[in-house]
Amino acid sequence: MNIFNNHRTKEQLVYTDRKDFSFVSDSDVYLDSACQSLRPQPVLDAMFSYFQKYNACGGRVKYEWGKQVDEAVEKARVSILKRLGKSPKEYGVAFTLNTTYGLNLILNQLPGRIYKQIVTSEIEHNSVFLPTMMLVKKLGIPRVVLKREQDGSLNYTKENVAQAVIVVNATSNIDGRTLRNAKVLASDTHKSGGILIVDGAQSLVHDTSLLREVDFDALCFSGHKTYGPSLGVVVIKKTLLELLELSFVGGGMVEKLETDSFSIPIIDPVSKLEPGLQDFAGIIGLSSALDWLDMYKPEGLSVVEHTQRLAQMTFDGLSSIEGLHLLNSEPSSTISFYSENVDAHRLAIFLSQQHIMTRSGYFCCHYYLQNVKKYPPLLRVSLGLHNTESDIRKFLEVTQKIISNIK
Prior knowledge:
By secondary structure, the chain is of the alpha/beta class. Helix content is 37%, strand content 15%.
């Protein structure tokens, strides 16, 4: 079913200036950056440069190409710690497949006997919710699911965090609410002998000030949500690294090897989390993405200013459409809603027919959205740095037209 006439004249096309995103068609509106951000041209150039100019293994060779790779990988680690305001003396940076993989890698290698409970929250992505369920079986300790306030704060007591493994997101992929009490949570957790592991998948782009203040034990995020390639990152305290009981091992992490034992390089403790050959092009691309984020000025604005402007415009526009129910109580780069008149999946299809790309469903947050709140399928709009006011106007106009026609 197509409720639109797709025949458009040249005069009806909307043209925009997307610096570093020239490969995006003027007629396309991509509003799914919470799932995967687009890659700017400098990131693509950096990855192609690796493949074409110094395509070698890192950490294993002595020739010049390999040295360039080692320097680039080290630069990426430094950039990540700098962005988070963490010291290389206290934290290490390991590269993995994605956020989900990183979380599992840490949780599945935690030692027993130290922790008394596992704590998470109701609004977590399945990447957190499911691994914490599995950790119960491994450690044989209880699991507690806590509520999050509308502002994103975790609702907890001192008993909740006592000797606990706490795994929560810093920013929700449902409505963008943030873990406002993260700094106090970390302090309370450490005082009672626990650790705080943060899902930072949605937090590395728009504003890292919260994470810079938090004394987390580990943080996982994904390059594909940070304008880089599909890559995972683990930022972890070296004290926690020392506690891990390794179960996922292989090449690239051995200093000495005997018949029945091996040792990890003392000077490279993060190798515990990096078995096998790494995605060097991906690491280099991520490093380029972080550099790009520091320099990019969409329409002359900072990343935060640009995002806030478009978020306010989107929030105000959706709030004015009759029959829509927003989950957000305030503007955010991620906004979810449902309509009284049209199923979210149908709405996503209708929008797609007009070259507008959104996400429909439960966004891998089934426990909270489907079981706790019992919402119908939702539609999510998540903004990126490639988006413009023209994108938002088109999305709002088309959505209004769809809702009106369905009535």
